[in-house]
Input
Amino acid sequence: FVKTSNDTYSRVYSFGHKDHSKHAEYLQIHVGGDVLEISGLHILFVDGKATLAKDVRVGDYLGASQRVVKIEIVHRRGLFAPLTESGKIMVSGVTASSYVGLLDLNPSLQTYFYDAALSPLRLVCQFSAFCENESYPTGISNRIARWVRVGENVRQYTSPLVQLIAVLAVSPLLVGFGMLEYMILNP
Output
């Protein structure tokens, strides 16, 4: 379980990335006395609106009162992206999404899309040991690596309009999975 807000915790059921040795570039975002290190494609909430971390600017507010005072680029070893049941995680006093923006679409839309797309995995992990045997041969979960590659290819080779049409085409199925997950977990 990890903190997702000042008084809420959520279970980590998987990791999008889990690689102890990979070198990566991060944004070091200073908010008051805290420092958040995050990838540029990770989704944060600026004034309550989902925003890619790379689009955060000095003076923005992360949460109600956490004003960004400085942003630097740093390089670190290790790449970790815990996926929580709530879709959020709190790090250094800042609530962020568990998701990254893989598509050229509005980050809010992507957050809802990924939350629905991962509902079958969340549900299976809730009731079985399926996720306990997860591996990360390329640093990305073997359960979702194929879908991450599809998302990266869609972003690379298609326009935002085609991406939106693809998301809208699969959304009814994903909403159905999300509703099923909700009905099973909240009878």
The chain has four helices and ten strands. Residues 36 and 92 are 6 Å apart (CA to CA).
